[in-house]
Design brief:
Order of helices and strands: EEHHHHHHHHH
Shape: elongated
Number of domains: 2
Structural class: mainly alpha
Number of strands: 2
Strand order of the largest sheet: 1-2
Number of helices: 9
Largest sheet: 2 strands, antiparallel
Length: about 210
């Protein structure tokens, strides 16, 4: 039998009693209601398990704890299996991305560099050498390309990934952005990170100077 203190006189009473035998205080507990306990076990199992423990139904509570643990293990195992099955597809896309998407990012970064005079400002305003400024821009290209790839693979389904691979493999990339909107959306989500990547690289150079 599980005991707890009466909220009025602090006498130890059973969690199943409805009133304190010493002071007569009425004790209303949500977990003493069987319908509510069943509801919480079905709706939010951890809450339901807590109710079972409070009611003194420890065997039943531990059974549900075991079921929750097994459920977590099963989901984790399933997720790992899915990732293992998708790995070859991801690797194939990764090669396509490095060959075709990274050069696209470099063109965009070079255009932005010319428009905003980024390298010039890095050398004149930040005091970087030309080699360091070039390294900063290479870092921007690398990080933005990785952002694009991870963003796309994180949101696209297998069919979309296969469409991109097939389009570049067969050199039929016309209207690809319309056929696979997720590809363009993923790129757009990363294009605004130029200043962030520049700042990260400058902080790195300062920390290692």
């Amino acid at each position: 039998m599980t005991l707890e203190a009466c909220p009025t006189c602090t006498t130890e009473i059973s969690t199943n009693t409805k009133s304190c035998p010493k002071c007569g205080e009425s004790v209303n507990r949500w977990y003493t209601s069987t319908p509510w306990t069943v509801f919480w076990v079905v709706a939010v199992m951890p809450v339901g398990v807590y109710a079972l423990f409070k009611r003194g139904n420890k065997k039943t509570a531990w059974l549900f704890v075991a079921l929750m643990i097994l459920s977590v293990i099963a989901k984790s195992s399933k997720a790992e299996k899915v990732e293992e099955l998708r790995a070859p597809l991801f690797n194939e896309y990764g090669a396509i991305h490095q060959k075709h998407m990274t050069p696209q990012i470099k063109q965009i970064v070079d255009y932005v560099d010319e428009e905003k005079l980024i390298r010039y400002n890095l050398t004149t305003m930040q005091g970087l050498t030309e080699k360091q400024a070039n390294g900063v821009m290479q870092y921007v290209v690398s990080e933005m390309s990785a952002c694009w790839k991870n963003n796309f693979l994180g949101t696209a389904n297998d069919t979309d990934i296969e469409k991109v691979i097939d389009a570049y493999t067969t050199k039929k990339i016309q209207f690809l952005n319309k056929k696979v909107p997720a590809l363009n959306e993923a790129r757009s989500n990363c294009l605004g990170n130029t200043d962030k990547y520049i700042s990260e690289r400058i902080d790195y150079l300062i920390a290692n100077s």
